[in-house]
Amino acid sequence: MPYLEHDGDVHILYLGAQDSAQNPENRFHPDWIEGVHALLDEVESISGPGALVTTATGKFFTNGLDTDWLFANLDKITGYLDRVHTLYTRLLTFPMATIAAVQGHAFGAGAMFATAHDFRVVRVDRGFYCLPEVQLNMPFTVGMSSLITSRLPKQTAIEAMTTGRRFGGADAVTAGIADVAVDEDAVLSCAVERATALTSTRGDNLAGIKRAIHGDLLAALNTPTDESNFAFGK
User: Fold this and answer.
1) For the whole model, what pTM was predicted?
2) So what's the pLDDT on residue 20?
């Protein structure tokens, strides 16, 4: 399960532990989603300067939707996807700077989770950013499509969404997906250093600026998912 650590005024949200047998790929199980929200609540409750770095350990940053849970609960798919959207809206409007320290693979909804942060630091040698939905015959929700097309360069979004290309670290920077690619052992420290420089921006004003920047995207993410805009498997 997710957990928190701190480095000065920088809050480090770990999406899961490498040795976790329960959820080693940090997939979006409903309990995991609630755990992330609870930790973000905790971060927001801490007064004073602050910034957020999100990372993980091991092979995966996050492998996205919990497909085991999803296929066992297809009758709940639309509500589940709407709850996934709340992670994105939470990050897009978070009242402090957010940096994803992507130390491993980020696939599907997990790649979008990284994209919802203000900035991204990735590993240069390993770890893919990938949107495999086209290969899974799975459509993007209205909100997910808007997140990708508004946060990535248009041609990058087209290639990522329509081909399922796996972008390595250096390619992700070139494509405008990530801000910087560094060696494995520098991913977290680079993100923390960048976050430390932004701790003074924390507050309601920053949250308001973000809401204005992402107004159309937030409206799309708040569009309820139903049969009119999401037809999985067809």
Assistant:
1) 0.96
2) 59
